[in-house]
Amino acid sequence: MNNISSYPWYRVAGAIGCAAVFITGCATNLPPPTEQLAVTKSALDNAVSAGGNEFAAVEMRAAQEKLERANQAVAKEDYLTARRLAEEAQADARLAEKKADSAKAQKAAVAMQDDIRVLREEINRKTK
Questions:
Q1: Does some domain include residue 83?
Q2: Pseudo-torsion of CA 40, 41, 46, 47, nearest 10°?
Q3: For 78-123, how does the pLDDT look when each residue is reduced to its tens digit (9 = 90+)?
Q4: Count of alpha carbons within 13 angstroms of residue 61, beta-carbon side
Q5: CB-based contacts of 10, cutoff 8 Å, min separation 6
Q6: How far apart are CA 45 and CA 66, in angstroms?
Q7: Cα separation, 50 vs 48, whole angstroms
Q8: Are 17 and 72 within one domain?
Q9: What is the pLDDT of residues 42-55, one digit of tens each?
Q10: Fewer CB near the terminus (10 Å): N or C of the chain?
Q11: CA distance 95 to 31
């Protein structure tokens, strides 16, 4: 007499099914990403302070929209999506901050070059 559980593929299928239920159960018990949201908010504040709205408007807008969508996902208790969106918003905010820093440094370099040019003109005028 053949027992159905003696076939190895039933055991494998059962193990896969149990693993799927376990993984799904763990994914639904995620805590709200409150710490990630706070870090993202801080990154956005830093980007604003650095001049992100002026020098990296596209990245700032993307970061703000993703943070808003992350907050909406938290309200719907979709914590996995909320965490992903918050992490993306944080990356966008950091990019905006660095772009703003770079643009300000570029402006300072241009101003310095203008000052050097003016000083050279002064020196050349005085030596003649």
A1: yes
A2: 70
A3: 999 999 999 999 999 999 999 999 999 999 999 999 999 999 998 8
A4: 5
A5: 4
A6: 15
A7: 5
A8: no
A9: 999 999 999 999 99
A10: N
A11: 27
The structural domain count of the chain equals 2
Q: Residue 97 has what pLDDT?
A: 97
Give the dihedral of Cα atoms 81, 84, 88, 94; nearest 10 deg. 130
Same domain, 19 and 45: no
> 41 and 97 share a domain?
yes
Structure-block tokens of residue 25: 């159960």
* Residues 5 and 55 occupy one common structural domain: no
CA–CA gap between residue 96 and residue 46 (Å, rounded): 9
Find, among 50, 51, 93, the residue nearest to 68 by Cα: 93
Cα–Cα–Cα angle for 44, 46, 48, rounded to 5 degrees: 70
Domain region containing 60:
31-102
109 in a structural domain: no
Same domain, 91 and 55: yes
Q: Identify the residue whose tokens are 């660095």.
A: 98
89 φψ region: left (φ > 0), alpha (ψ -120 to 50), beta (else): alpha
- pTM score: 0.70
Q: Angle at the Cα of 58 (from 54 to 63), degrees rounded to 5?
A: 105
